[in-house]
């Protein structure tokens, strides 16, 4: 898979990991309902972003934070989080295959109607020919989940729906 195609997944993982650590800072959980997340990466930051919609409730929001904590425990040697005023700042050093990712992210917003994360990452050695990258995630609450949606449903940019909770259950069953 190319780095370009894996960036939305990486941004989601980074967001989950950041949210996990931020939970230790006692920020309010995201408001239940339908969230739209717009993700732009590197040179694409000025281009059309990838847009994902996600239906959450308190359980799925907590589960995503827990997944992020597990991912950061397994892959990161450094995960420093602190609050600077209303902004959550995350500095991390993580491994993805042979590459070390060193990131600085800033997250702001009220997690009830919107939030924004901007991260800057260096890759050593370069990943897919890239030595550094930027990711910007802007999320806004749209209202209640749509009819027929269940908590954990994520509508990907290509229109495909995946359920985070179902994927997590399948992953747990594989480990047994």
Provide a descriptive summary of the structure in words.
It is a single chain. 29% of the residues lie in helices and 45% in strands. It has 176 residues and is α+β, with helices and mostly antiparallel strands. The chain has one domain. The two termini are 27 Å apart.
- Rg on CA atoms, Å: 16 Å
Pattern of helices and strands: HEEHEEEEEEEH
> How far do the termini sit from each other?
27 Å
Task: Sum up the overall morphology in one term.
Answer: globular
Regions with pLDDT < 50 over 5+ consecutive residues?
1-26
Mean pLDDT score = 82
Count of DSSP H/I helices:
3
Instruction: Give the biggest sheet.
Output: 9 strands, antiparallel
- Helical content class: 25-40%
Tell me the strand percentage band: over 45%
What's the structural domain tally? 1
Strands ordered across the widest β-sheet: 3-4-5-6-7-1-2-8-9
**Number of strand segments:** 9
Summarize the structure.
By secondary structure, this protein is of the alpha+beta class. It has one domain (3-175). The chain is built from 3 helices and 9 strands, in the order αββαβββββββα.
């Amino acid at each position: 898979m190319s780095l370009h195609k894996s960036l939305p997944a990486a941004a989601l993982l980074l967001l989950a990991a950041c949210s996990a650590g931020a939970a230790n800072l006692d920020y309010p959980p995201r408001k239940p309902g339908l969230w739209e997340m717009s993700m732009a990466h590197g040179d694409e930051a000025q281009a059309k972003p990838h847009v994902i919609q996600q239906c959450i409730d308190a359980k799925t929001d907590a589960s995503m934070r827990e997944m992020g904590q597990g991912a950061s425990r397994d892959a990161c040697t450094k995960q420093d989080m602190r609050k600077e005023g209303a902004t959550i700042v995350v500095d991390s050093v993580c491994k993805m295959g042979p590459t070390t990712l060193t990131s600085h992210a800033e997250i702001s917003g009220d997690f009830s109607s919107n939030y924004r994360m901007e991260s800057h990452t260096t890759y050593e050695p370069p990943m897919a020919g890239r030595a550094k990258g930027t990711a910007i995630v802007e999320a806004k609450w749209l209202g209640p989940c749509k009819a027929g949606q269940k908590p954990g449903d994520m509508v990907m940019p290509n229109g495909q729906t995946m359920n985070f909770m179902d994927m997590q259950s399948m992953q747990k069953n594989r480990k047994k």
